[in-house]
Amino acid sequence: MGYGPGSGSGSGVRAVRGSKVTHLALRNMKDQGERIAMVTAYDASFARLCDQAGTDILLVGDSLGMVIQGDDNTLAVTMDEMIYHCRAVARGVAAATGRAMIVGDLPFMSYQSAEDEALRNAGRLIKDGKAEAVKLEGGAEYAPLVSKLARIGIPVMGHIGLTPQSLHALGGFKIQGREAGQAERLKADAQALAAAGAFSLVLEGIPHELAAEITAELPIPTIGIGAGPECDGQVLVLYDLLGMNEEFRPRFVKRYENFAVRVRTAVDTYINEVRSGEFPTAEHSFSREPPGKERGPAARVAAAGGVVAESDSGDFALAGLGCVQLRPLNGGRE
Ligand code: KIV
């Protein structure tokens, strides 16, 4: 896949426009032994950043019911909500490199009860949500639906193992496939979905040995979450990898940031500056002088390379005055 200069750097913008990730590219990555990186996204701002970072697939997951809406599970998420978030993510990707593939989750009861409703809802994620593929949870029983969707031109990502929409039937968020019969069923599900035309398969919450066997047997890429390192790719919920929730520390999540601390610290610094009158200063304010003719603080900011928050037409524009030094909430300890 074509990365631009800076590929492999820790924080740089890596992906370049013009190398859209498609299901064909993903199959190629599997064949070449290149790992696939997928992450969830729910809004334009994070989608833009994740696309710029070079993420291969952005999943607009129904996990938004938990991390955005604050529910205990994903069951209440609606089609309209999925479309709303898919569209926001699509705008974010379009505003960045446009490279990441956008996959939209079909939420609970949007595809389980009737085939024509399932087809219509998958179509809505593509037409209205601007997703480029859909994901659905479930095994061989959905092979006919997957096949129909694939034939009408909607790429489908399957999802087996710990399927959160079946939370109540599974008796909780429990690892699946430890017992031999269950493992064989999951293998059969994987084969059935691949044969039906699914372009990829999420393996969630299963033993890594089982994930390795399924990955080796399937022609399509597997994307693991809590399924070990032998999958063709990995997915994490963005808010988990960013460390947004200090109470949520499952074994399968690796935290790459501690946003809980960083966000609180930034907002605490802002609050203190508002209360003390340290913010805003004249540099964050407008004068009666027309833009460009200012002689006061705004002119000094512009001269120093800052962005004055007013365009030539007088419109309010984005300001980039740099980051303030944050005062750690806890004396620097995390
Ligand atoms: O909804 C979601 O975010 C998911 C991933 C965790 C695979 O299904």
Would you give an account of this structure?
- The protein is α/β, with parallel strands linked by helices and 334 residues long.
- It has two domains: 23-257, Alpha-Beta Barrel (TIM Barrel), CATH 3.20.20.60; 272-334, no CATH class.
- 37% of the residues lie in helices and 11% in strands.
- It has twelve helices and eight strands.
- The chain has an eight-stranded parallel beta barrel with strand order 1-2-3-4-5-6-7-8, surrounded by seven helices.
- Strand 6, helix 9 (208-217) and strand 7 (222-225) form a beta-alpha-beta unit.
- Helix 2 (44-53) packs across helix 4 (79-95) and helix 8 packs parallel to helix 9 (208-217).
- The longest helix has 18 residues, at 259-276.
- It is elongated, with a radius of gyration of 23 Å.
- Residues 1-9 and 316-321 have low confidence and may be disordered.
- 3-methyl-2-oxobutanoic acid binds at residues 40, 59, 61-63, 105, 159, 202, 204, 225, 235, 237.
